[in-house]
Amino acid sequence: MQLKNRKSLALTASLAAMLTIAGCHKKNPAPPPPPAPTEAAPAPTATITASPDTIDAGGQSTLTWQTTNATDVSIEGLGQVGAQGTQTVRPTQTTSYHLIAHGDGGSADATATVTIAAAAAPSAPSESNISEQEFEQQVKPVFFDYDSYDIRPDAQSAIQGAANFLNQHPNLKVVIGGYCDSRGSTEYNLALGENRANAAKQALVTAGVAPDRLRTVSYGKEKQFCTEQNEACWQQNRRAQFTLDQ
Amino acid sequence: MGEPYTPGFGQPFNAGEGQDVAKKNGNRMIVSQTKKIVAVRLSLFAAFLAFTFLIPSSIQAQDWVQTGSNLPVQKIRVAAADLKAASGDPQTGPMKSVFDQTLYNDLRYAGIFDVVSKSMIPNATPGSPSEINLANWAAQPSNAAYVAFGALAVSGGRVTVQAYLYDTHQQQSAQVLGKQYADNATVENTRQIAHRFADEIIERLGGTPGIAETKIYYVSEKSGSKEIWVMDYDGMNARQLTHLGTVSLSPRVSPDNSRIAFSSLGRNGWSIRMYSLDLGRLVAFPAWGGTTLSPAWSSDGTKLAFSSARSGDPDIYVCDASGNNAHRITAFRGPDVSPTWNPKSNAQIAWVSGRTKLPQIYIMDADGANVSQMTDGGYASAPSWSPNGQFLTFAWNRRYGPGAPGGEDIYIMNIATRAWVQLTHDAGMNDAPSWSPDGRHIVFQRENGGRSEIWMMLTDGTDQQQLTHGGGNSQPNWSWK
After folding, report:
1. A33: nearest CA in chain B?
2. CA angle B411, B413, B416 (to 5 degrees)
3. Which of A183, A185, A205, A227 is the best substitution to test chain B (most B C-beta atoms within 10 A)?
4. What is the C-alpha to C-alpha distance for residues B181 and B161, in angstroms, rounded to an integer?
5. pTM score > 0.80 for this model?
6. Which residue of A137, A168, A199, B205 lies most exposed, with the fewest beta carbons within 10 A?
7. For chain A, how are helix, strand and coil distributed in percent, rounded to 5?
8. Which of B206, B240, B258 is a domain's end point?
């Protein structure tokens, strides 16, 4: 998840500079640009395919991608991905997967489209019968470390369980609430809660849930699950909570 | 003579924790007295190296806090006589006490006066210049350099106040101020008249406009949900402005006092809402989607900075006062929130970023260039920029960590030198400071064993006053005038 290496940071900085220039229409506002590479870097390449490229509603397709000379690879809607890989997706509507590879030598992109065959209404289980209780039993909250919004390894099973349930019930829409413990700044915790909710959203999207089914709301430290002042309680409050979007 | 000015104690940036001198008010007096003795000793015994280490840094801090915040070295000794009741109307007494109490408090809170205690003033209520004996006010124990006095009358539903300020050491032309005020006879109007007269005195003797007529906007849970409220700067006259029944936070009044921008939780998350003080209701403001928070006005009222996660990650944006032309000026992964403009130039913005994990205060140009980190660790949040552009005040927990109970305190920092001074000590969790328009005061929230309440203090950390009592009150924002 984390962009730790120097090249990515440099790239992020130059992207920030580009955004800043584009956004402000002012002369020369950019932070100092990263040092230019001393010799020309090879241009990246990118390819992506979907197999099959046409599926029935509720079906799945496998994306396979490959890049070279790239330091930062992402698929729009899925977020950061490895330089090469495969992933199963279950789009609910015809979806184009846009692969973008950035490297020192430039950038490259490629697109694969998964088409949903015109089909009768999905025969998935009737969604209206899903109760809040049943939903909560199946879709567990994701807990976070102190002042962090990284998905912990021990949260992967919660993410996978939530993704499986949502993929089995493709008509359900979900609100992801981001929560923080009671310590620290009100405003900062609202921003941190947004990062937590969004991290959970990205993890579900990576696990094949369509992003348009997921909505994030930050509650910061405004709503607490537990009000005692101890670590056990704080941990309860540092979470992304899934609820039905009704 | 008045008490000597007691400095706030601070350390230069990166000072060791061992220099955390004089934590409590009690200690503060002792150190102040010790300092004089030390000065003598130092001339005799050059060996007191420990003291030479300690004293210069606090003197330095004292200098920059004092010069930058208009706090005087020597406070002016001022007395306020109770007004003379100049009418028989039964409302006269109650209104007179409201005026007397309000004026006394305003002078006391101003930060530039040593106000003579009511028990030390001459037992007299001169109603006019011909009735005052200035020598009595200049003499011990009153020892006042200036005296405020006058008369209040209620008649025909109108309250009239004749108010004077005299220089006790002038034989001729002793009058500094002579004012007449009239309004409908209500307690509230009388209180406002006292505020107006106090501001006249403060401006005349202190050189800059006072704050007695300013307001504080804040969040209160008194009604059961977090709503935006307003009160006078002294905590009186509180009233609820919004009735949204959800969570409303971060009120920021516009520089012309006409609108309040704030953030509010709706069905689709957080958005910036706009409340018109002229119309007494919410007015349209665009909702962009994505957690949008913590608005901040530029001092010319033409722009707002805020935090928005419309791109998926919270960043700082700037838009016009109408909400148009929003554009992003940061692109850092992680939380970016709580912007505040340099009100002197509107060319810089300070804000809080979690780009290196724990939140720190940063400064950048208003277009996003020239980012520099101001705090060097711990958990720093909620910056507010001083009116003269020289300082930041913010909440800082320098020993923050998982499981650490942590006291969160209010600090100010000299932006040019990054020297800082801790203003609150050992008094719970202090947060959300906001600078007064006169630069001499800071209003903040304190949670000390109970619910959060709003306090104010002088910029050197002295004269801490609790303004709200009960109900849960937070995130104060001082009006611009």
Report:
1. B369
2. 175
3. A185
4. 5
5. no
6. A137
7. 30, 30, 40
8. B206
B206: tokens are 């202190």
pLDDT for res B90: 95
How far apart, in whole angstroms, are the C-alpha atoms of residue B396 and residue B411? 7
Residue A230 is given by DSSP the state S
Note whether A32 contacts B: Cβ–Cβ < 8 A: no
Q: Which domain holds residue B285?
A: 215-478
In a domain, B29, yes or no: yes
**CB proximity under 8 Å: B 328-347 to A:** 328-338
In three-state secondary structure terms, B444 is: strand
Position of tokens 């520099």? B372
Is B317:B326 a contact under the CB 8 Å cutoff?
Answer: yes
CATH number 2.60.40.10 is the correct assignment for the domain at A6-116: yes
For range B183-190, the mean pLDDT: 97
Task: For B317-341, write each residue's pLDDT tens digit.
Answer: 999 999 999 999 999 999 999 999 9
Neighbours of B208 (CB within 10 A): 14
In the structure, what pLDDT confidence band is assigned to residue A168 with cuts at 50, 70 and 90?
A: very high
- What 3-state class would DSSP assign to B245? coil
Q: Alpha-carbon distance B406 to B402, whole Å? A: 10
CA nearest neighbour of A183 among A114, A237, A118: A237
Neighbour count for residue B104 (Cβ, 10 Å): 20
Number of structural domains found in chain B: 3
Residue B335: both structure tokens together: 């939380």
Domain match, B272 and B377 both: yes
Which residues in A32-69 are b (16+ Cβ under 10 Å) and which e? eebeeeeeeeeebebebebeeeebebeeebebebbbeb
Whether B392 contacts B372, CB under 8 Å: no
Indicate the residue among B206, B235, B260 that finishes a domain.
B206
Expressed in angstroms, the distance from the first to the final Cα of chain A is: 31
d(CA B461, CA B442): 9
Does B2 reside within a domain? no
Q: What would the CATH number be for the domain defined by A127-244?
A: 3.30.1330.60
Nearest alpha carbon to residue A221 among A177, A176, A186: A186
Percent of chain A with pLDDT over 70: 77
A216 Cβ under 8 Å from any chain B Cβ: yes
Asked if B226 has any chain A CB less than 8 Å from its own CB, the reply is yes
Name beta bridge partners: B352: B337, B361
Q: What is the ipTM of this complex?
A: 0.85
Q: Which two tokens stand for residue B415?
A: 């932006």
